[in-house]
């Protein structure tokens, strides 16, 4: 079952930050600085977590992964934005 995740990160080192950004581009849609929306099955979530764990420094960096629920039930009912409108990703197959 696929779930929608919001992934945010705070990376202290510029080199690791670029590697995390590049990795996340393979798993989801870039929404804002350091924020991605991902529509993933469980196996891809595990793969993403494994790769990010290898990149980050657990003593200096933080990655937050919010599970918004199953993709099929459209868990995002509404999003309130201030300023520019939000551009959410539509459900689509992502080849990593």
Q: How much beta, percentage-wise?
A: 25-35%
Largest sheet: 4 strands, antiparallel
Report the total helices. Answer: 2
Output the structural class.
alpha+beta
| Beta strand count | 4
Describe this structure in words.
The structure is a single chain. This protein has 96 residues and is of the alpha+beta class. Helix content is 27%, strand content 28%. The protein is built from two helices and four strands; from the N terminus they run E-H-E-E-H-E. It has helices at 14-25, 42-55, and strands at residues 3-10, 29-32, 35-40, 62-70. A four-stranded antiparallel β-sheet has the order 2-3-1-4. Strand 2 (29-32) and strand 3 (35-40) form a beta hairpin. Helix 1 (14-25) packs antiparallel against helix 2. The model has no long low-confidence stretch (mean pLDDT 87).
Write out key terms for the chains shown.
27% helix, alpha+beta, 4 strands, 2 helices
Task: Tell me briefly what this model is.
By secondary structure, the protein is α+β, with helices and mostly antiparallel strands.
SSE diagram, text form:
Layout (H helix, E strand, L loop, with lengths): L2 E8 L3 H12 L3 E4 L2 E6 L1 H14 L6 E9 L26
Antiparallel strand pairs: 1-3, 1-4, 2-3
Helix pairs in contact: 1-2
């Amino acid at each position: 079952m696929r779930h929608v995740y919001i992934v945010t990160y705070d990376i202290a080192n510029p080199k690791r930050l670029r590697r995390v950004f590049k990795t996340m581009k393979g798993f989801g849609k870039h929404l804002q600085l350091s924020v991605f929306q991902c529509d993933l099955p469980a196996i891809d979530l595990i793969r993403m977590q494994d790769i990010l764990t290898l990149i980050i420094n657990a003593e200096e960096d933080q990655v937050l992964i919010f599970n918004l629920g199953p993709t099929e039930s459209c868990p995002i009912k509404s999003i309130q934005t201030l300023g520019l409108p939000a551009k959410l990703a539509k459900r689509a197959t992502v080849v990593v």
